[in-house]
């Protein structure tokens, strides 16, 4: 299978490089405004605009087509005029979407997402209607609107060079977006995180809002031709959301989103080249040669997102689970030590060490499962906090010191609660049993000095003295 | 998992659980039955290919009187779809999840594609088996919704981004699979593109049967669980604390959305199916504040716009039925936005207009009283007859308040229409008997409120006038009674209490009388 994979990749030619480059430039151009849409919780606005630029483009197309036919515009500038008209149409409809949504929301007191839905679906329906009506006399292919034409980008080049026109368009949009982000970085940042504050310090938050909508619309139209109408939304939101999971700084987030966008273009095209022949021929579809590159790009971006969702260093689900597990493990470890310490306190006679059986320890840890308690005891043995004897377990010297600190925290907290809060006696233990794991040496000694050398806790037991040298655990 | 377990243990769960499972089985049975009948009925009535010319008169009559079998079938199917979309959409709107329909539509695509590929792989040429495609769409959409919920719940990604991510990734994957399908010899004939743009105009009897049974299931389900869904929509936390199986209810609502969604995908297309949910529901919101009425209105609007859309697309050539159905809905939305009896713009505007006019009239009456007040105080006890005998001058009255001449003229006209005043000459007029009473009442309310503010709200006497100005027009009868009691304690002999502050500096200057009204309580 790998041999097959490399054999296909060996055929990689200049065309593939151009496809990847064009797609990467398009998706990077989309990812830039996408960052701010995600932060401003307007992702669905991006989705909406990606739909509503359709009527804008169709109307602009029909209008210029009409003007060209009636001879108002010279036919020699056909391509440029068409493109300019499409851009203008898209911008108008992008802003119209934002304006109409706000208007419906205010005038009809409709919830914002519902208002957005009504507006963009209606405008999109208009677009579809116009396409269908116009399809006979004008050539607009609904399929190319949906799928994009990045695979054939290399056919339409600039002059005599082999640089595809689409790559140039996407590259310039990326450049403009980058310049805008650098110029308005501070304003964009403050209005994304705190529009109220932005207004008070003199940044026009609504100008930023409409500016962003405008830039989004332009970017969408430019990338629209290469990656298709609906897929631009994947490139708009998914890289930015992936970056949002991986970073807490806006600058890092933007850089990561660009990297993710470029990587999805590369791996998306590789997947589109290799996956169909390798996978689909196996299951009996021998005629399948390749799949849509934009479609695969979206799927690959999705994989990146899932990877970030699961394995992200700070916000990833796995790392969160791991953190939670290690915290629970520490609590169980400390509970074992605390239990042994209390047993020693109540049972000790002479210098005989108190040995407790495994069964008794497990019973005391009623909230922890078998896995946690086994792991905790093994770790304690490794760290030489407890010793194993034929009859059970007993504390070592270092274990006793750790446990002493814990029990001291517990009883100090109980005493403090009893003194300062009007709680019945039987309510103290539960909270103290939770809080004891989170009281460090500073807080412990502060509590002790607050209590002015109190030696007996509310239940009549002695509060153990402070441990001199700090031990690690 | 614990919450799921709790759901099953909860005492309420039996009914909901059974209904949900029943719903599932029902849909499966319908799909199977449909599969059996599709082969017999499906090809008996192939969609008629209409010529792309302007419709003849005969054609119009045939469509409108539903003589065409095909039109009848299509109409029935889309109307049923519109109705169930409207019902489910109302619940989604109230749960603030209107755009869920969009997710359902887009995520159905890879399901259809995978189902097609799987069926092709098992037995080539059988990929278009309709129930199989629908099952694929159903599973993919449900998966999409569940993923959206999971992402929202377990990561820092918010709901809007979660929806955008899920729908775009699923859609992208679907598009990739579709391009693969096009490479398969039988794939070209598959006509799977129907699912993207819809094929409302060429529904056949078997499709309509499927739509009909699904709609019926949604209808029955929402009727049986109406109370539960209402509770879930309005106060999820309360529902949880009351022990309702919120998770199962949420799941059954999702099931309903997905069912209507995939059925809609087939007729209006996956790009526009969201509109079937959102637009009728938002439109219905303008007509009623009660969930039951909203649901009914939304269902009616959904059905009517579907019907109008189908008829329009049957009459006019090259009119995409899906788009025109959506635009009919939009038309009703705009209509409701303006005319809605509950939240419509026109109603609100009329209320505001009415209030403005009432305020202007009352302000005039108060100005009249304050104009005459020095005399009334002097003629202690004989006030009633005095007020109707005194002539009021236009220009001096205009100076009593800071109002524009236009508003003042409006107020005069309104007061004249209501027989509160009658004019003697263009610049002079008098109060009628009702006018005098009204003036007394208004000033009384105003001063009662001032008194209240000073007494209870600890507002300085110099500040109360403005506050009272805005509130006096909306004081309720109960409040007036209460204030009257307070007044009786303070000023036992007076019908209209004295003003707690100077009326208006330049008026007092212009009156010969000393400012006797300035009594500080």
What does this entry look like structurally?
- The complex is a heterodimer of chains A (473) and B (521).
- By secondary structure, chain A is mainly alpha-helical.
- Chain A folds into 3 domains: 2-315, ABC transporter involved in vitamin B12 uptake, BtuC (Orthogonal Bundle), CATH 1.10.3470; 316-395, Orthogonal Bundle (Arc Repressor Mutant, subunit A), CATH 1.10.10; 405-473, Orthogonal Bundle (Diphtheria Toxin Repressor, domain 2), CATH 1.10.60.10.
- Helix content of chain A is 72%, strand content 2%.
- Chain A has helices at residues 2-10, 14-39, 43-69, 78-107, 112-134, 142-147, 165-183, 185-193, 195-200, 205-227, 231-246, 250-282, 293-311, 317-347, 358-364, 370-382, 397-420, 428-435, 441-450, and strands at residues 386-389, 392-395.
- Chain A has a two-stranded antiparallel ribbon with strand order 1-2.
- In chain A, β1 and β2 (392-395) form a beta hairpin.
- Chain A is elongated and about 110 Å long.
- The two termini of chain A are 50 Å apart.
- By secondary structure, chain B is an all-alpha fold.
- Chain B folds into 2 domains: 2-45 and 55-343, ABC transporter involved in vitamin B12 uptake, BtuC, CATH 1.10.3470; 349-510, Arc Repressor Mutant, subunit A (Orthogonal Bundle).
- Helices cover 72% and strands 2% of the residues of chain B.
- In chain B, strands 1-3-2 form a 3-stranded antiparallel sheet, sandwiched between helices.
- In chain B, β2 (421-425) and β3 (428-431) form a beta hairpin.
- The interface between A and B is large, with 70 and 66 residues.
């Amino acid at each position: 299978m790998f041999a097959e994979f490399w054999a296909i990749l060996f055929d990689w030619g200049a065309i593939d490089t151009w496809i990847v480059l064009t797609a990467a430039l398009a998706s990077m151009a989309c990812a830039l405004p996408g960052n701010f849409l995600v932060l401003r919780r307007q992702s669905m606005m991006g989705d909406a605009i990606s739909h509503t630029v359709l009527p804008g483009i169709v109307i602009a197309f029909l209008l210029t087509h009409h003007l060209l036919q009636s001879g108002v515009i010279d036919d020699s500038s056909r391509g440029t005029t068409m493109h300019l008209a499409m851009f203008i149409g898209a911008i108008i409809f992008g802003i119209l979407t934002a304006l109409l949504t706000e208007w419906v929301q205010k005038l009809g007191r409709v919830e914002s997402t519902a208002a957005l839905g009504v507006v963009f679906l209606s405008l999109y329906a208009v677009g579809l209607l116009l396409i269908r009506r116009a399809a006979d006399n004008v050539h607009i292919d609904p399929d190319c609107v949906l799928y994009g034409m990045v695979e054939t980008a290399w056919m339409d080049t600039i002059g005599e060079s082999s640089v595809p026109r689409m790559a140039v368009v996407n590259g310039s949009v990326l450049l403009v977006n980058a310049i805008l982000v650098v110029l308005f970085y501070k304003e964009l940042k403050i209005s994304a995180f705190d529009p109220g504050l932005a207004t008070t310090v003199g940044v026009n938050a609504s100008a930023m809002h409409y500016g962003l909508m405008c830039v989004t619309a332009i970017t969408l139209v430019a990338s629209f031709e290469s990656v298709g109408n609906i897929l631009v939304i994947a490139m708009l939101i998914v890289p930015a959301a992936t970056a949002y999971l991986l970073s807490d700084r806006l600058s890092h987030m933007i850089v990561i989103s660009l990297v993710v966008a470029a990587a999805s273009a590369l791996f998306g095209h590789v997947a589109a080249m290799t996956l169909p022949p390798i996978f689909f021929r196996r299951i009996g579809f021998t005629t399948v040669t390749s799949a849509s590159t934009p479609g695969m790009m979206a799927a690959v971006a999705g994989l990146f997102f899932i990877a970030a969702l699961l394995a992200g260093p700070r916000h990833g689900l796995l790392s969160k689970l791991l953190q939670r597990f290690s915290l629970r493990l520490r609590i169980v470890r400390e509970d074992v030590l605390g239990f042994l310490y209390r047993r020693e306190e109540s049972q000790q006679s002479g210098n005989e060490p108190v040995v407790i059986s495994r069964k008794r320890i497990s019973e005391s840890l009623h909230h922890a499962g078998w896995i946690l308690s086994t792991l905790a005891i093994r770790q304690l043995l490794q760290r030489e906090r407890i010793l194993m004897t034929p009859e059970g377990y007993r504390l070592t010297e270092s274990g006793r010191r750790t446990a002493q600190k814990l029990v001291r925290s517990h009883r100090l907290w109980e005493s403090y609660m009893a003194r300062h809060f009007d709680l019945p006696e039987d309510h103290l233990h539960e909270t103290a049993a939770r809080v004891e794991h989170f009281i460090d040496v500073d807080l412990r000694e502060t509590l002790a000095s607050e209590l002015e050398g109190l030696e007996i806790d509310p239940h009549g037991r002695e509060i153990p003295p402070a441990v001199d040298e700090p031990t690690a655990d | 998992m614990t919450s799921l377990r709790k759901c099953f243990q909860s005492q309420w769960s039996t009914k909901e659980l059974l209904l949900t499972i029943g719903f599932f089985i029902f849909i499966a049975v319908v799909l199977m039955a449909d599969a059996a009948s599709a082969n017999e009925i499906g090809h008996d009535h192939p969609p008629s290919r209409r010529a792309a010319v302007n419709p003849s008169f005969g054609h119009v009559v045939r469509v409108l009187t539903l003589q065409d079998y095909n039109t009848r079938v299509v109409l029935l199917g889309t109307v049923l779809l519109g109705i169930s979309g409207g019902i489910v959409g109302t619940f989604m709107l109230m749960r603030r999840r209107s755009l869920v329909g969009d997710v359902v539509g887009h995520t159905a695509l890879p399901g259809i594609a995978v189902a097609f590929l799987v069926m092709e792989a098992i037995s080539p040429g059988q990929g278009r088996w309709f129930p199989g495609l629908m099952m694929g769409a159903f599973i993919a959409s449900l998966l999409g919704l569940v993923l959206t919920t999971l992402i929202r719940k377990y990561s820092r990604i918010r709901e809007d981004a979660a929806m955008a991510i899920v729908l775009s990734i699923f859609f992208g994957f679907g598009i990739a699979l579709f391009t693969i399908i096009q490479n398969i010899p039988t794939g070209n004939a598959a006509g799977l593109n129907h699912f993207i743009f819809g094929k409302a105009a060429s529904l056949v009897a078997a499709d309509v049967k499927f739509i009909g049974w699904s709609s019926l299931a949604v209808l029955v389900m929402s009727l049986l669980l109406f109370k539960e869904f209402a509770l879930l929509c309005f106060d999820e936390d309360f529902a949880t604390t009351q022990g309702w199986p919120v998770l199962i209810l949420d799941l059954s609502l999702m099931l309903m959305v997905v069912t209507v969604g995939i059925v809609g995908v087939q007729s209006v297309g996956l790009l526009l199916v969201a509109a079937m949910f959102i637009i009728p529901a938002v439109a219905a919101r303008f007509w009623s504040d009660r969930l039951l009425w909203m649901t009914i209105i939304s269902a009616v609007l959904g059905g009517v716009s579907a019907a109008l859309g189908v008829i329009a697309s049957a009459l006019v050539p090259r009119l995409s039925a899906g788009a025109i159905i959506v635009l009919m809905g939009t038309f009703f939305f705009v209509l409701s936005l303006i005319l809605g009896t509950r939240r419509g713009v026109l109603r609100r505007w009329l209320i505001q207009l009415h209030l403005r006019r009432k305020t202007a009239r009352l302000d005039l009456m108060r100005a009249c009283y304050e104009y005459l007040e020095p005399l009334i105080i002097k003629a202690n006890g004989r006030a009633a007859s005095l007020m109707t005998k005194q002539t009021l001058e236009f220009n001096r009255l205009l100076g009593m308040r800071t109002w524009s001449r236009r508003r003042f003229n409006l107020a005069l006209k309104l007061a004249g229409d209501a027989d509160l005043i009658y004019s003697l000459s263009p610049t002079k007029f008098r109060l009628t008997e009702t006018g005098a009473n009204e003036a007394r009442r208004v000033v009384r309310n105003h001063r009662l409120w001032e008194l209240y503010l000073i007494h209870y709200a600890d507002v300085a006497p110099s500040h109360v006038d403005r506050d009272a100005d805005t509130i006096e027009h909306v004081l309720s009868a109960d409040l007036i009674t209460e204030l009257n009691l307070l007044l009786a304690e303070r000023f036992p002999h007076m019908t209209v209490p004295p003003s707690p502050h100077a009326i208006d500096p330049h008026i007092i200057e212009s009156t010969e009388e000393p400012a006797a009204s300035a009594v500080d309580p």
